[in-house]
Amino acid sequence: MDVLAYFASLDPMHFMGALPGNVAQGLIWGIMALGVFITFRLLDFPDLTVDGSLATGGAVTVILILVGVPSPLAIAIAVVAGVLAGLVTGLLHTALGIPGILAGILTQISLWSVNLIILDGANKAVNVDKYSLIVSLRNVSSSIITVLIIAGIIICLLYWYFGTEQGSAIRATGCNPNMSKAQGINIDNMKVLALCISNGLVALSGGLMAQYQGFADIKMGQGAIVIGLAAVIIGDVLGEAIFRKRMNFSIRLTFVVIGGIIYYLVIGLVMWLKMPTNMLKLLTAAIVAIFLAVPYLREKRINSFAFKSKKEGRKNA
Amino acid sequence: MLDLYNIKKTFNLGTINEKQALCGIDFCLNEGDFVTVIGGNGAGKSTMLNAIAGVWPVDGGSISIDGIDVTALPEHKRAKYIGRIFQDPMMGTAANMGIEENLGLALRRGKNRNLRWGITKEERERFHEELKILELGLEDRMTAKVGLLSGGQRQALTLLMATIQKPKLILLDEHTAALDPKTAAKVLELSDKIVADNNLTTMMVTHNMSDAIHHGNRLIMMNQGKIILDIAGEEKKKLTKADLLQKFSEVAGVQEETDEILLS
Fold first, then answer.
1. Between chain A and chain B, how many beta carbons pairs sit less than 8 Å apart?
2. Chain A from 140 to 179: CB within 8 A of any B CB
3. I need a surface site. Which of A27, B87, B156, B206 has the fewest CB within 10 A?
4. CB of A245 within 8 Å of any CB in chain B?
5. Which of A218, A202, A4, A33 is nearest to A120 (CA)?
6. pLDDT by residue (tens digit) across A259-310?
7. Architecture of the domain defined by A2-300
8. The domain made up of B2-263 is a member of CATH 3.90.1150.10
């Protein structure tokens, strides 16, 4: 009876009603995922700064809007704050020789204090009725369009940048540092540069998110890196499945953002199924683990001794 | 072209693993020289090449290339003057990037990397022509990822990358050692051709005595961080494997029998 009552209580309209909001949030997270893509995929550097720099972006944006700075300018300054966070991680790693993951964690931890100082507390609200915000959950459809345009511009810019001499040098650094040095690339500078660009994008996403939800919170970046990775990986797997060999760089970037949207749709689905919200982080981790594991396991199965011998056996039969 | 003066390098100084790898190397190379470098394991051949390339700073002495003192320059700044090929075919190219992208990176060695396109249309046409020299059909797969190429193809591409920007000096560090004999011969032949066509100053480390004898116009032998033999010109042309082995035991002494085995 309980099971029946549970299913009867699920209203498809609820899911559909929450859909636009989830798409908007997914798009905003998708922009952050583009930042994660740069470090994780192009630079081969697992950058944990993002949990901090996302909240920094939100905090700077909200505080500036509250003192009367127009919201586009506030976001631009938030991007600069994110770039500085990336710079710190980059210098900790290259100039001071701290291993990449640890350098990111150190910046992330220190940003917690910095964000508390910026926010002058644990959170700050910004009311859409009093201030003009570029995105807000009060007006979901216009928010989606705005974020879509921003994401489109960013994808175009990234596509262009990583095709330039400098962008190619960053990709080479991530791919083969030894070869890059032999080709005259200053790999330390390239790493710092990539971390700056990445965290600038993450802060931009934080600024949009704070406006969308109407507040900045010290905890808003918690687990952001995992969500970013989820988006990047979901996007990769999906893009690979749809486009296969025709997958080029612009499609990859687009699918990173789509990965963010899909992640949020899954979250929306889970909420609709009335799973306790306490389980969300566990679920996110599970999604990332599954999407990372599936391509690996498939590869392993195809190349396994058991699979090969079975195939051989069938051929001989 | 290349002047090494009293180059010293000791690894793991002050530890139980302390090893004096280069003990005051003095060496000069004229423009257009092609020198082959032989010696047993641990003789200091690769260490000397790494010292020239600037992989780490030397402990003493000075290095200058074409009159420019590069002793204090880090690796990526010296790259302007030097083209390098490594023993491991995976080391010299970026696997996730296309053939033309790798060449584009190499073409900008020693130049500022700005916000111009990584490869222009004219460059693409030039790469197409240059790839034909390799005779591997790579000119028809210019956008293919380098990771899809075989070791020999990658090494040939690295050769082209090292020379596309006409460096003052080419360092070949056992660049055919990881290839099968046929591919190795092909890559060596290509190296000879490209070096000769461009009149490049070259240093080639090898473990293969007959390669060392048949290539280049000069030969040096190293042992325990020193150059113990330096043969050039007519004398080198007449050189045989037996001569070399005999000279080796003469100069290095009898205790080096193990190295002799390694070399032959």
1. 82
2. 161, 163-169, 171-172, 175-176, 178-179
3. B87
4. no
5. A218
6. 999 998 888 888 888 888 788 888 888 888 888 888 788 888 888 777 777 7
7. Orthogonal Bundle (1.10)
8. no
